[in-house]
Amino acid sequence: MNNSLTWKDILSQEKKKYFFTIINFLKKERLKKTIYPSSKDMFNAFLLTSFSAIKVVIIGQDPYYSNNQAHGLAFSVPKNHTIPPSLKNIYKELNSDFRKSFVFYHGCLENWATQGVFLLNTILTVESGKPKSHYNIGWNVFTDRVISLISYYKEFIVFLIWGNDAKKKCNLIDTKKHYILKTSHPSPLSAHRGFLGCKHFSKTNKILLKHKRNPIDWFGI
């Protein structure tokens, strides 16, 4: 494992035609449509969690598509926004897992990100009001590469795989070096199919401690 590598080192090789096609498409779309998140927030997951700091990867789908909810971190919203239903279920499971009754006053997960929880959406942008509208513009190529590179260069990372879209990424992860915890998506439509009661948060911390890494303070948000 090389702990001196940065995202710049890792992603410099992704300066390819497909990536520039995505960026050029977004520049044109932003001139005539509302796209979330803003261009300054689009790569927040990479800015807040350095490559060397990654301990946990949570894979989301595409960003929230309502007004200013998305800010570049999977499942997270800025502090002044209502907590979305999926995140409410994540908080519900957290309290159940650790037998707490903690009150979460906001849905901003930046503190998780700075502790080494890489909150990666597989699609990094979306048109306002149109879920999965950017599903086919090339983001999957990019994020598949990101997951593959994490798998290749790191070891003992805990991948939290929630829902069918995330499960499609399992073949990118070397299970001889890493841990995969799988269950249903935390959305109200599927949380009861396994997410609620999965205890992924305490299991993650046990794995981190086993490898002499600091556990995540899931309640320190």
UniProtKB/TrEMBL annotation:
Its EC number is 3.2.2.27. Its main location: cytoplasm. One of its GO terms (cellular component) is cytoplasm. The keyword DNA repair applies. Transmembrane segments: none annotated. It is found in: Cytoplasm. InterPro entries: UDG_fam1, Ura-DNA_Glyclase_AS, Uracil-DNA_glycosylase-like, Uracil-DNA_glycosylase-like_sf. PROSITE patterns: U_DNA_GLYCOSYLASE. GO terms for molecular function: uracil DNA N-glycosylase activity. Residues 47-208 form the Uracil-DNA glycosylase-like domain. Keywords: Cytoplasm, DNA damage, DNA repair, Glycosidase, Hydrolase. Excises uracil residues from the DNA which can arise as a result of misincorporation of dUMP residues by DNA polymerase or due to deamination of cytosine. Belongs to the uracil-DNA glycosylase (UDG) superfamily. UNG family. This is Uracil-DNA glycosylase.
